[in-house]
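Journal club prep — side note

Before the paper discussion, L.F. wants everyone to see what a predicted structure for a comparable chain looks like in token form. Sequence:
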Amino acid sequence: MKYRFMAAHRDEHRVEKMARNLGVTRSGFYAWTRRGKAARREHDERLTASITGIQREVKYRYGSPRMTRELRRRGLCVGHNRVARLMRDGELGARRRKAYRVTTRSNHSHPVAENVLLRHFSVPAANRVWVSDITYIATAEGWMYLCVVLDLYSRRVVGWSMGRSLGAELAVNALLMAVLHRRPPRDLVLHSDRGVQYCSGAFRRHLKEHGIRQSMSRKGDCWDNACAETFFASLKTELIGDRIFQTREQARRELFEYIELFYNRRRLHSYLGYLSPEEFERTPARGAA
């Protein structure tokens, strides 16, 4: 206790004077200070090892806020600033994000649905509102395109598909996967941008068949579909970074692992109180449609 007092006030008073008044020695204080520094270094080394292990498990996908939460879930009492410092010093951050590429083809003559969602991104139950979007994936064999459908309640990817072209089949396949897995009630809302895939006759027929109400963003307003955009930002940061997949098959395998095994089941989501989408839906009084 005396040494702590001296350390807290050493900028105000001389160490020799405080030691004399408190009945301790300067050498004892300096020995205590060295032991404290050594203990902090040792703790930092153990914490850095834990951070490194977690990053290897999640393939370097966590930034410092999510890493802090993961460490706390594992029983470690840590602060965000300390974790951020150790990750910065050890170059243990998440992968960098790749440049954005436009995939929306909204220059078409198909009818456009009204914006039913109106940026109401907070949903009280599962299978009430889904959102969908499309992005590109670069491979050495050529472009691949990924379409996803997310449940706004849990941000879970409930349907997805990959293809070599941006045709309507890409969006239809993702929709059908979502319907098969979730079997949603009628009057579910599905929101997307105005891309030709979502405006196509084939996509609209499947919406009608399953009683799904269509909603579309305003022209050129990406914020109307911000949740889907956020998912793709995480995907590009945490899985792809600056990489180009060697083959389309490699892209399919790694995207399956990211979506089904990591993102849906394990990744801590800040919006969900740092639970995974699967955990969030399993929590009592949640997930029921």
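L.F.'s comment for the group: The radius of gyration is 26 Å. Keep this in mind when we get to the figures.
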